[in-house]
């Protein structure tokens, strides 16, 4: 059976194997972005740099994604989706492997920016790529499965690579991920269906989309949710040390990941029918988890439960926001998701930068207050956005 026929057949039955392969791409994509978060002290010591400089390894990656996503998605709209994805995987692999081999901070930042550029194109295009392989009624499910890799990267991948980094060094962690990405690329070369690009028109341009009020509302939810979550997550090691969590960072990431995994399974099942309810729950759970950290952060058991609840909130973040923006357009979903992805990554940069500045003045618990302050308006907007999210 040809790959084109497989793609057509997928329109009827949900193509689980193809979607799981795409999910593995988002799995390594989020690991490529967040890996430094779990080994901040090691990188600081090895490169002799400050905590803020080390946080910039995540922040600059994110801002590169934000800046280049929209123009590069527009420029690559006509490119075959499969071949574009293979090029991006190559960029991820090379940037991680070389970063693990060199000792110059500036060069590592440049390599992180290259990885960020690849991520800026990958996140929006892979969701749209997957949606083109299924019926419209399964769009939310396709996004949820593909973006489950993001959650699995956090729930399983981050604890695993952090453990590898702590036991064998952060350089082994980076090089190992690069090799794993090459393996995924080889499988994708033979397994993914070839899908042509599409033409970009004036009505589907990024500027036209920004005139749609519902799109702007989703972008605002993206800004609030991402800054709230990532402002804390990028410096999760510092927060864990501050509250002296039993089991340390590995325990925190494992519980956080378990919650994320549960919530993404719920998102796969319910995103198409209950988008607003899930988005509301996402903001509500973040508020509850952060309040528990503030009030009971030094109490074993309750503090661990707070990280689990935080994971429940974090898990479907990418899925819900991309599904929400996709609902607002009829064509050029790649462009719509690229706009949302740019705001998403810009928000990561804002979150990590603001959090880094706050850490220079206040304790890590100040980041928890920031998350709560941003989540409250997010919760109110989600509850009242019936026309946009229902």
Automatic annotation (TrEMBL):
Keyword Methyltransferase: no
Entry's Gene Ontology molecular function annotations: transmembrane transporter activity
Swiss-Prot/TrEMBL keywords: Cell membrane, Membrane, Transmembrane, Transmembrane helix
Membrane topology summary: Multi-pass membrane protein
Residue span, Major facilitator superfamily (MFS) profile domain: 17-389
Principal cellular location given in the protein's record: membrane
Cellular compartments per GO CC: plasma membrane
Residue ranges of the TM segments: 12-31, 58-76, 83-103, 109-130, 142-162, 174-193, 214-236, 248-268, 275-296, 302-321, 342-361, 367-385
Subcellular location: Cell membrane
Classification via Gene3D superfamilies: MFS general substrate transporter like domains
Keyword Translocase among record annotations: no
PANTHER family in the record: CHLORAMPHENICOL EFFLUX PUMP RV0191 (PTHR43124:SF3), PURINE EFFLUX PUMP PBUE (PTHR43124)
Record protein name field: MFS transporter
């Amino acid at each position: 059976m040809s790959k084109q026929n497989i793609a057509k057949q997928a329109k009827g039955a949900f193509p689980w194997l193809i979607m799981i392969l795409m999910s593995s791409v988002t799995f390594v994509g989020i690991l490529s972005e967040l890996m430094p978060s779990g080994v901040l002290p090691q990188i600081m010591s090895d490169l002799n740099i400050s905590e803020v400089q080390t946080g910039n390894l995540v922040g600059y990656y994110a801002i590169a994604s934000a800046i280049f996503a929209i123009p590069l998605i527009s420029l690559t709209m006509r490119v075959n989706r499969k071949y574009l994805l293979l090029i991006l995987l190559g960029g991820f692999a090379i940037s991680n492997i070389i970063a693990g081999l060199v000792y110059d901070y500036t060069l590592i930042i440049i390599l992180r920016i290259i990885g960020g550029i690849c991520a800026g194109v990958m996140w929006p295009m892979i969701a749209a790529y997957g949606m083109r392989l299924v019926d419209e009624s399964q769009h939310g499910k396709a996004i949820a499965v593909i973006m489950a890799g993001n959650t699995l990267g956090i729930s399983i991948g981050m604890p695993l690579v952090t453990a590898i980094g702590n036991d064998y060094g952060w350089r082994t962690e980076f090089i190992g991920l690069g090799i794993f990405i090459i393996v995924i690329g080889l499988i994708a070369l033979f397994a993914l269906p070839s899908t042509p690009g599409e033409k970009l028109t004036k009505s589907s341009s990024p500027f036209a989309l920004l005139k749609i009020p519902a799109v702007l509302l989703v972008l605002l939810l993206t800004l609030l949710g991402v800054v709230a979550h990532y402002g804390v997550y990028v410096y999760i090691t510092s927060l864990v040390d501050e509250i002296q969590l039993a089991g340390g960072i590995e325990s925190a990431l494992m519980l956080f990941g378990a919650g994320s995994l549960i919530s993404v399974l719920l998102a796969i099942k319910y995103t198409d029918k209950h988008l607003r309810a899930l988005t509301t729950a996402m903001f509500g759970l973040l508020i509850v988890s952060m309040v528990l950290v503030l009030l009971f952060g030094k109490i074993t058991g309750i503090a661990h439960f707070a990280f689990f609840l935080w994971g429940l909130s974090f898990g479907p973040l990418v899925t819900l926001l991309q599904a929400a923006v996709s609902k607002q357009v009829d064509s050029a979903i790649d462009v719509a998701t690229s706009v949302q992805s740019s705001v998403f990554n810009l928000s990561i940069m804002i979150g990590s930068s603001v959090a880094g500045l706050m850490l220079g003045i206040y304790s890590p618990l100040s980041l928890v207050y920031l998350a709560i302050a941003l989540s409250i308006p997010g919760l109110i907007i989600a509850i009242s956005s019936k026309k946009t999210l229902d």
